[in-house]
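Lab channel / #folding
Pinned by the channel admin:
"Please post every new chain as: sequence first, then the structure tokens as a reply. Keep commentary short and put observations after the output so the thread stays searchable."

First post following the new format, from NK:
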Amino acid sequence: QMDEGTVEISIETKPGLNLEKVDAVLKKTESIVAQDPDVENYLLTVGSSGGMSLSSTTATLTAYLKEDRSRETKAVIQEWEKATKDMTDCDLSFTSVNSMSSMGTGGDSEVSLNFQGSDLDTLKELDQQVQDLLRSKEGILKVSSSIQEGGPIAK
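Reply from TO:
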């Protein structure tokens, strides 16, 4: 695959996050990209999704790397993933984009775990234990949770 030097970062904040925290997430991500010496320029687009009370903000930051950069795009992505791994108010995904395909870099894999139950306190406790365990493992770059208070469900 040809290294064309374009990185797309998809950002989704946690539902219900207040505007100041959303702004902080976007500013931190933008700062990491803007300060990178291999970045020529970038474009940040922001929107929102969901209802009034549990909306989340979605954003895409597309970074265009310099042709004479010192690192390959994959190395830049790995560095940015490490720099953002402690950001817990959002989910970020990084993709190397080329003109032939928008399929990404290939070898990366994402794992999703889904826990369900009627005791929210137990679920939160288990969620935290799993996050702590995963964060302690070498090679895991990003751990996040979407646990939230839900409304009653009639069955």
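NK: Residues 101-107 have pLDDT under 50 and may be disordered.
TO: also worth noting, The beta strands are 6-13, 39-49, 56-65, 90-97.
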